[in-house]
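In the lab's daily routine, each protein ends up as an entry in a very long ledger. A line of letters takes care of the sequence, but it says nothing directly about the fold. The three-dimensional part falls to structure tokens, numbers that each stand for a local backbone shape. The outcome of that step, for a single protein, is printed below.
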Amino acid sequence: MKDTDARPVQGRGQATRELLMKAAIVSFTTLGYDASSTRQIESEAGVRRGLITYHFGNKENLWKSAAAWSLQESTAEMAQTLKSAENVDPGSRMRFLVRAYVRFCARSPEFHRLMIKEGSEDGWRLKWLVEHSVAPWYRRLEKIFTEASNLGVAPKMDYHHFYYILTGAASLIFSMAPESVLVADIDPMDDKFLSAHADALAELLFPG
């Protein structure tokens, strides 16, 4: 009986955590960390005062949890994509991964907005993002790029150039989706446009 009674309570607790993380990631990417208050985040989430302390302990832990949560689903999908591409020839694998990465960026615009917000200042939050997300992806992609480069099927540039060209081209339009709508009346989240953007970038970096 105790286990049965606990499940709804645990479900409500997880729902509250997600409400707080969703409100937090919006606040951190628009106002910034320092300007975001726990009271304001709780108000935006529509929950009682003090629940950030209850669920996360403090604002720093909330920031870390929200950053990880914003990537959780899309990161798992990207990991599966990398695994499924292991037996594909390096050239085709790179084109496949470019397309997959565009979709990854479209599914996690909040994280990329957070990277833009934090990437210009060398602080603990940027170090956390690099350690827990950027560096692992950077190293995995570097290995694939090097294999393709050794076979002559990668763009003739250093990997570091390639990484930031890919990251910028794949993520910026989704991070700045409202601008895209205002400038060209194009919703980059539209699936047809998303696919065209993925194909265009793959062809640009790996023609043929």
Remarks:
- Residues 27 and 40 are 9 Å apart (CA to CA).
